[in-house]
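Ops channel
N.P.: pipeline sanity check, posting one input/output pair.
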């Protein structure tokens, strides 16, 4: 099954039509600015050694989003979001698209822009996550509900 890839303008329109945008960049990247209304579920975490895989990516996505929910995935330039789309489709998600160009834009190795990103197109950007959409909140709710389940046993 091939991953559908759409440009940022089309992603913005789909968000208006009810699609959910999930930013798979690291927490610091997301916190520095992201598409307005986005959720943050990092495919990789930023460490002192660089980016490392987030072992909880699939479990958080599965806990928070229905497998048939329409989801747009975005990252910085399009690489991580494409990887995330493939992983989610393998996991049984059926309505996942990848946003080409990511937040900053997609460039060739020679620095030629292939697809302008969300920010360069001047689409709505937020500096803070809406309530319940940061990775910290998405994962703390899991821990809180697990603790509540254990407390009630």
């Amino acid at each position: 099954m091939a991953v559908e890839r759409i440009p940022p303008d089309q992603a913005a329109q789909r968000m208006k039509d009810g699609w959910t945008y999930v930013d798979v960049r690291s927490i610091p990247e997301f916190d520095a600015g992201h598409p307005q209304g986005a959720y943050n579920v990092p495919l990789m975490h930023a460490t002192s050694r660089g980016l490392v895989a987030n072992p909880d990516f699939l479990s958080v996505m599965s806990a928070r989003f229905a497998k048939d929910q329409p989801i747009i995935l975005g990252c910085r330039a399009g690489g991580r979001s494409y990887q995330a789309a493939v992983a989610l489709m393998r996991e049984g998600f059926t309505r996942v698209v990848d946003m080409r160009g990511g937040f900053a834009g997609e460039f060739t190795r020679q620095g030629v822009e292939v697809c302008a990103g969300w920010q360069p197109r001047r689409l709505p950007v937020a500096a803070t996550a809406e309530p319940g959409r940061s990775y910290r909140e998405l994962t703390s709710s899991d821990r809180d509900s697990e603790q509540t389940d254990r407390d009630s046993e």
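N.P.: looks fine end to end. The chain has five helices and eleven strands.
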